Amino acid sequence: MTLMTPPPLDQQQQQQQEDDEMLVPHTDFPHGPQPMEVAQPETGNTVEAQPVDDPPSARFTWTIDNFSRLNIKKLYSEIFYVGGYKWRILVFPKGNNVDHLSMYLDVADSTTLPYGWSRYAQFSLSVVNQVQSKYSVRKETQHQFNARESDWGFTSFMPLGELYDPARGYLVNDTCIVEADVAVRRVVDYWSHDSKKETGYVGLKNQGATCYMNSLLQTLYHIPYFRKAVYHMPTTENDNPSGSIPLALQSLFYKLQYSDTSVATKELTKSFGWDTYDSFMQHDVQELNRVLCEKLEDKMKGTVVEGTIQLLFEGHHMNYIECINVDYKSTRKESFYDLQLDVKGCRDVYASFDKYVEVERLEGDNKYHAEQYGLQDARKGVLFIDFPPVLQLQLKRFEYDFIRDTMVKINDRYEFPLHLDLDRENGKYLSPDADRSIRNLYTLHSVLVHSGGVHGGHYYAYIRPTLSDQWFKFDDERVTKEDVKRALEEQYGGEEELPQANPGFNNAPFKFTKYSNAYMLVYIRESDKEKMICNVDEKDIAEHLRIRLKKEQEEKELKRKEKAEAHLYTIIKVARNEDLLEQIGKDIYFDLVDHDKVRSFRIQKQMPFNLFKEEVAKEFGVPVQFQRFWLWAKRQNHTYRPNRPLTTLEEAQSVGQLREVSNKATNAELKLYLEVELGPDQRPVAPPEKTKEEILLFFKLYDPSREELRYVGRLFVKGSGKPAEILAKLNEMAGFNADEEIELFEEIKFEPNVMCEHIDKKSTFRASQLEDGDIICFQKSPPVGSSEQCRYPDVPSFLEYVRNRQFEVYENLQTTLHGTEVLTGLEFYGYTLVSCKVVRFRSLEKPKEDEFCLELSKLNTYDDVVDKVAHHLGLNDPSKIRLTSHNCYSQQPKPQPVKYRGVDHLSDMLVHYNQTSDILYYEKLDIPLPELQGLKTLKVAFHHATKDEDVIHTVRLPKQSTVGDVINDLKTKVELSHPNAEIRLLEVFYHKIYKIFPLNEKIENINDQYWTLRAEEIPEEEKNFGPHDRIIHVYHFMKDTAQNQQVQNFGEPFFLVIREDETLAEVKVRIQKKLQVPDEEFAKWKFAFLSLGRPEYLQDNDIVASRFQRRDVYGAWEQYLGLEHTDNAPKRSYIANQSIRHNFRSCGYHRVPLPS
Fold this sequence. Notes:
The longest helix has 23 residues, at 543-565. Strand 21 and strand 22 form a beta hairpin. Residues 1-25, 27-43, 46-53, 276-282, 501-506, 806-834 and 1131-1156 have low confidence and may be disordered. The protein is flat and about 120 Å long. The chain has 29 helices and 61 strands. By secondary structure, it is of the alpha+beta class. It has 8 domains: 57-184, Apoptosis, Tumor Necrosis Factor Receptor Associated Protein 2, Chain A (Sandwich), CATH 2.60.210.10; 195-310, Cathepsin B, Chain A (Alpha-Beta Complex), CATH 3.90.70; 313-501 and 509-533, Alpha-Beta Complex (Cathepsin B, Chain A), CATH 3.90.70.10; 542-681, Ubiquitin-like (UB roll) (Roll), CATH 3.10.20.90; 691-782 and 793-808, Phosphatidylinositol 3-kinase Catalytic Subunit, Chain A, domain 1 (Ubiquitin-like (UB roll), Roll); 836-917, Phosphatidylinositol 3-kinase Catalytic Subunit, Chain A, domain 1 (Ubiquitin-like (UB roll), Roll); 927-1014, Ubiquitin-like (UB roll) (Roll), CATH 3.10.20; 1019-1139, Roll (Ubiquitin-like (UB roll)), CATH 3.10.20.90. It comes from Parasponia andersonii. This is ubiquitinyl hydrolase 1. Keywords: Hydrolase, Protease, Thiol protease, Ubl conjugation pathway. One of its GO terms (cellular component) is nucleus.
């Protein structure tokens, strides 16, 4: 910012100067190659000594003579030292391709510094007005210098017209005086800093323009109550994080909690619908905070965590207008999630609150029109009815300047306390309706900081995660420990003055406007601290999320390790006869093998190949002396065949050397074919010496009646020999009679079209141009006069059919994946391999056993797939087939089946996150799937009142049915203790009761995948409790010695009515009777009041009811009477009573108050 400008600058020039303060490294824009000309004219330079305290600082004064006569593009000052570093000033006397003086601070020795160097400096650059020093032009900034940005400053420092105007006072006797004030600050080594190791926390990656989001997310994450509520939002493994804000936020928070490195936010921003750079630029922190809270609030509706956002952040104030001369007052209650406080004109937060509740007088022309009384003098103001547990204060650092017609940043000093008392001065901020029993004393949790100007800058946050004395700075990927001064005082803003050592010319104090200052504060109410800063551990996280994220983390770590060590290893892929037998006619039809599906070895490059052969011997059971390896070669016609065996000399080399021999043009994997000869007893024997005369051929057999192609083996033949000589051997390989007439064809190529030519059985192999690795397909000769009609009677027609079938897939893929781009032969072959898929089908009742396989195209529609499955099973109605996809992580069926026509193609059914499966599960239904989908199926465990068992019942009702309908259905299936017994439905999770379902709740919103549904009779004592009685939660627990004595719940939770004055001793008698625990065992039990996992042990004379809150809030289940004992009771038996497979799709909940 320009501190002083000489008159007469008009407003337009002033605005231009403000707009030109873009802080960028200097850039030259010559139109062609130009020599670098840097001159050092006669100049006078002084460096004032710097103090030794931190930060080291100095002022360098540079006197440039004959300034207007300089005939060079750029000019460097002499080198000066600050903080032990070499610096210099760089000026462009005629401007850096602009009509302004351009001036930068430069790291003088940047070209000789070691790799990865960086240094951080605050600095100002000035052109001194030698007539009136107060009109000196001064601009200031800060920057982290590095090899890429070794100079930084102002391309448009000041207009050349002003600089060269003799009347302005900047050039006197053609001398220009330039000053640089530089302060060097400590820099955290970005590359070597391990945030997790140093602080226990990790940062968030910056996607570009997302640092404001990162600072807010870190703040919300470090409010554990908020994090726990996010974890408790129902999600399923079928949700896609990029399309589900709850799942994306759960995933992000889980990674922040358990990852060792910084975490990406792309899934979360995609779930917002922000997938471009512009999206990020269109939002600020306050808007993001409100968008996120609104979306979460909406997603929490109907769930167990409904109301959490309001409970945490919502406060209320009262707007009032009160007439002075008549008895009339108008009030309006409004809620807020954050408060915007003025910074301009306020010295601290208290001054802002004073201004917020300041009374405005409505009088004169601004009188208030009161009903019945007309225009009246009045007082207008705001008072607070209540403040939330988490108070978010948005500081108005950015304001619109009406005079300059632009947005400006307010960098004024603005103080905020570590402890904020909003009850001060007898509750001056509170309305008459406020509850004065609540103590509004707050402690500072986090400070969100903006560093920069109105048009850009950087955001980061200072946070106290546990409200201890230790602060942490969360700056994108970096997390560092900081002290309270750095978090508070240094974020007040205003000016910072650095002392100067020596008096001298224009020796004003060295002051910086602090462009880094707080713009948002988060306070937590002292009385809510324990609740807000609660314990959050893995049991709060859904199992499907834990499994998935742990698997992702393991894969990520494995890939990172492999990538780091990749230069030390070679991947060797070994194809064998067994692979050809397995793949040809199933996965592939052309060529011999898909190398991605053969056994691969990760071998150190330095390992001798002969040692690798020992690894192969262990893996395949083929002794080293019986192994012969062939190199594969890609031919000009795009086929890929075994080319030649390895020589003895090559096998003596290292693996790395051999790979270079086999892949001269690329750094690809080493692909080998393992030839193993078998003796009469089918055991490996030494391969015979191969002569130049011998040719290795591979054979495929085609059956026209079954339209089936399969691999039958390989043979060595002599080049001078003829096919007629091996016909008997081929018949033996095919299982035909020795004299069966067969036709032979050579498979030559398949791209761009199929070439498969008839082989003359009387010509020699050499005359037919056959060589090592060639493929011969053969089939029975059709009998003369046969009436049998086949769609594809010979090998060429069948291969043409296969190729055309795959070409249709290619056309679709080209349209969807490549637009109008033409696929290469290699790309097409890749698609050929993946377009057809052999899918293994399993009955859902036997999920571990493959029942049958079908060859399908990945682009088969839903109807195609169920039609083929129904046909295979002999079922006339395909709509009675229901399919379920496979979970690649758990190796189990997904809990939710595929909906009727709910996916477009087979490929959609087989993909699970980033993995592809070849397994599908099927069921035969008793009614068509579309009809079944109109019903809701629930699994309910009925908790018998007297029998020690739970019977699991399956209830199937129309989706619009209510919980009352479920209970009525259950009454027809269960044994009640008496005919008039009433039943209720509960939601149980991790041995805690989270909810009682209201009878009118729609079952469509109930998700029994995530929670357990339990039905039970309502005890008589609950129906008849008095006005001062209340129902409490009672849970079993023990302390886990392996986990720092953490509380672990177990067993069946239940409700208990307690009387107003009932002691623990009296309650214990009723609990023992209810649970039927023997005296000897019951004497060992301890009883405690638990809140947020912290036990407070009770004595027999304690009044139990006095410990429990009376109001219903989210988290009521976290306050309970705990029964501490070992978990040695016999487990309740669960009896399945269901005739159909249950599935649970929706995930809606409604929080219901318990009787108080």
